[in-house]
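Appendix B, record 7
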Amino acid sequence: MEMMDNSNRDKENTDGIRKTDIKSLDYGEVQALLAGMGEKPFHAGQLYQWMHQKLADSFDEMTNLSKSLRRKLSESCSYTCLTPVQVLTSQIDGTQKYLFRLADGYVIESVLMKYQHGNSVCISTQVGCRMGCRFCASTIGGRTRDLTPGEMLDQVYRIQKMTGERISNLVMMGTGEPLDNYDNAVKFIHMLSDGHGLNISQRNITLSTCGIVPRMRQLAEEGLQITLALSLHASSQQKREELLPVAKKYEIHDAVEACRYYYEKTGRRITFEYSLVGGKNDTAEDAKELASLIHGMNCHVNLIPVNPIKERSYVQSGKKVIADFKNKLENCGINVTIRREMGRDIGGACGQLRKSYLDKEKKE
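Structure tokens (predicted):
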């Protein structure tokens, strides 16, 4: 399937009529749409509230809109509402993994993680991924298509509605590379943090990238206050190329310099994600090289014990190796955390639930 060129791509119904993807329209665009229908301005506020605050499943639920307006909307607009296919709950920490079906039949996954500071949702930004990171299940099979802003938003909306609990934090770390779906991802961030919607603070939103350098620099110019996380996973160019094919196009020092630029423009501390792979990138020399690479930056390193997947031979570093790596970085003045493993008993690694579901479908 072709990539979507922009967030407002119209869809065709079964009669071949172009329909507007209304949940991907921001507040101003909804106002313009209803004005074009000859409707009074206050209806735009009502409609937007139903979609992005009350989290309505369809136009039919919007009872303070007239039947004639709801009929016009149904005839001219498509309404994104993801269908839950499967929900897994961890018996260890309560993490929930969701598999959702899109209107065209493709499936994506999202994760709800509960912390003391609030509920966090990890969303997907694409159906599949073309980045090819060696230890990630999301990239097996490549990318099918981009997600629209509405499809990204509705992952959050479905989970909040199904659990009845407020979502306060958002991470764009699920299936897909957000900066490979740049326009839709940026629009999603604006809409999620808009006061007319869920109004989640941009400071509570993290975008994770494997290092598309031109897009990182473009993001720095957007005036956003989100956290940028670079999936670094290596301390040298050679090792990074082995783990992340994108490194062959964007050199490691260029990616780190783009992070420095992002901090200069936004004042937001950078996160470096570093998956520890046994025998690959977890030596004392790796720690020394990493400290030298990011020295002097306002940043923190998030060490991630790699989550093994059956399609790859990579194994997790031992606990002592992880602790020693952390200590060596701290001794060099680097702020370090070890990511708490969430949902290990339900295939917590990115892409695992979707991959197992598709494998099962193929067999059947």
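Remarks on this record: The longest helix spans residues 149-163. The mean pLDDT is 89.
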